[in-house]
Design brief:
The protein is an alpha/beta fold. It has a single domain (24-338), classed as Alpha-Beta Barrel (TIM Barrel). The chain has helices at 53-56, 75-88, 115-125, 145-152, 172-178, 185-197, 199-206, 230-248, 263-268, 277-291, 310-330, 334-338, and strands at 31-33, 36-42, 96-102, 133-137, 160-168, 213-220, 252-258, 296-299. It has an 8-stranded mixed β-sheet. Helix 4 crosses helix 6 (185-197).
Length: 340
Amino acid sequence: MSTEVEPLRDEYMTAASDPAIPPPSVLFPLTYDVRGLRLAIVLGNQAIGGLCPFAKSTLCHHCDIGLGEGVRFNTEMNLRRVDWFMNYYAKVLPELRHLVIYNSGSTLNPAELSPQVIESVLSHVRAFPNLKVVSMDSRESFVTSARVLQIASQLGSGRELRVILGVESADDRIRDGILEKRMSKQAIELAARAIASIREQLVRGHGPAVAPGLSINIVIGGPGTTAATAIDDAVATSLYGVELANNHGLRLDLNLHPYYPSRRGASRFPAHPRASVTLICEAILAILARIKNSAVLFVGLQDEGHDQQQGQRRAEIAFLSEAIRHFNKTGRIDRIRSGL
């Protein structure tokens, strides 16, 4: 599904022989959240095989994203990809408000994304006049106070860092049992504490606007839930994120992702259905009713080409994309309600 604005160019610059140029599947469309223009960029994974180490260990059974792009990246390749992104999106970068950085794994793990590549991105970031938030995806074990401080302090005045954690479900049985994420709540707590530990230091040097925050990814309707329990699970996970952020004085974003069967997911959970349009809409309304104004909720619908039911996906796009785009941009739920 997609909530994109118009493409920047009619011609997509690609070369199959050069993996540094992102394939169309990881070229996220421009979209909006309540802050304004939002862009997600996907860098290459530099770990062995180009795989997230957790995916390589056959964990995280619900998605294929950690399998990377089929090639191991190095620093030089990623630097070229960064330059490509900056060229491709050059016309809109002055208006950008929120930049999200992925790498099919953990952007805070130096073995998966080298410091030189992050420094290259940050050097560009400091020139974006309207940028307010930079979000970086990572596993909790790589979220250290030193790493967060190093990155947050380089963003420039008035920019906030958000560390994204793929919690998916606050239910230990689902997260660590069925999905085998090996992501204990104790480890998540330590990551939140690491982010909070450098808050005062950053505020003293740069002011409260740069205080780092937390983003929690939530899967709606994933394995381990049923049509009767999926919304309760999404709400409980949202409230867990709110409590975690409040306990540590962190600003919070919640990213809601509907479940779709990927290749691995369909193999592991062949009878588990995709999240229905009705379930997605009802989950948004239920979460907002409980979290009030405690967090920013964003509904992410990008599949990076991994959805194994593209026909159903296209039908959902036709039905949902405008309502989700409107909600993400304005925070208003009128078009979500009309979809029920």
